[in-house]
Amino acid sequence: MTATPAKPVLLTGASGALGRVLARSLAAEGWTLRLTDIAPFPDTVPAGATFTKADLNDGVTILRLAEGCGAIVHLGGVSVERPFEEVLGPNIRGLYHVYEAARREGARVIFASSNHSIGFHERTESIGADTQFLPDGYYGLSKAYGELMGRLYWFKHGVQSVFIRIGSCFPEPVNARMLATWLSYADLSRLVVRCVTVPDVGCCVVWGASKNGRMTWWRDDARERVGWAPQDSADPFAGQLAGKVSGDPVEERYMGGNFCSLGYSRSAPAPQQLFD
Ligand code: NAI
Ligand code: 15L
């Protein structure tokens, strides 16, 4: 058990896959949680937590939910590639509501960003956290926007943020790509605990991947500042997953995998350099 935050923590997207994991693990740390989602919370609300059904588009309710909170762990929104109009409300306007609430409360934001903000980087690269965004769809674009929103609120208002650029956070890795991108639930939980409780994080990026030594695409992030190191690894799954590839050249070329090939309409492969 680590330090318990002095103020309540607001967790958006609480009814989703990762929200349920974090609701359970953070409540087990003895934290006071305010859970929220547009969908009902499917589990028993843990001790020390309350649940409020709310739409991220409803800025007044988000402000009210954040009152008195010291941190907002922001997981809510569209979590896969969808048409622009579907992404717009939850991921763009909703994110603005979260940051306005954080500014008003002097709260820190832990934002569930995604590898899809950089999805069109090639798998042959090794990229640092300050690499350029190359989103692989409207969803990934909304995550890049979220990180940029956080930078705006840091420089203009001093709102602290950690952007966790999550790879693939599932119970187990299920294909060859996840030998690089997999993040265990336990590593995610430990990372969020650090992001909330470390005294000063400023505004920084942490790659959300476990200790996947066999395939490593991502480097140079703020994990030391946050005081986190992953403990789990996809490596033991390599034997069973190494051959589990799609056969789609676009999907296998880029880090974002099948999000890159969704709706892809180029007739010739893209050049390796952005401006070629
Ligand atoms: P999920 O789709 O299971 O959960 C997202 C939750 O947001 C859902 O419960 C949904 O009801 C809620 N939501 C959607 N629109 C809303 C609205 N307008 N107002 C309020 N709540 C709304 O996704 P998951 O897997 O739990 O991911 C959590 C976060 O982490 C998401 O932001 C996702 O983009 C991000 N992420 C997840 C990864 C993963 O491997 N699971 C990888 C990279 C990023
Ligand atoms: C994500 O951002 C999605 O939320 C998740 O469902 C997975 O598709 C993950 O990325 C991934 O890239 O595996």
Termini separation: 52 Å
Residue-averaged pLDDT, rounded?
97
Give the helix level as a range of percent: 25-40%
**How many H/I helices?**
10
Largest sheet: 7 strands, parallel
**How do the strands of the widest beta sheet line up side by side?**
3-2-1-4-5-7-10
Low-confidence stretches: none
Using the alpha-carbon principal axes, give the shape: globular
Key structural traits:
10 helices; alpha/beta; two-stranded parallel sheet; binds 1,4-dihydronicotinamide adenine dinucleotide; 7-stranded parallel sheet
Describe this protein's structure.
Strand 1 (9-12), helix 1 (17-28) and strand 2 (33-37) form a beta-alpha-beta unit. The termini are far apart. Helix 3 (84-105) runs parallel beside helix 4 (138-157). With 276 residues, the protein is α/β, with parallel strands linked by helices. The strands form 3 sheets. It has a 7-stranded parallel β-sheet, sandwiched between helices. 35% of the residues lie in helices and 16% in strands. The structure holds 1,4-dihydronicotinamide adenine dinucleotide and D-galactaro-1,5-lactone. The site of D-galactaro-1,5-lactone has 7 residues, from loops.
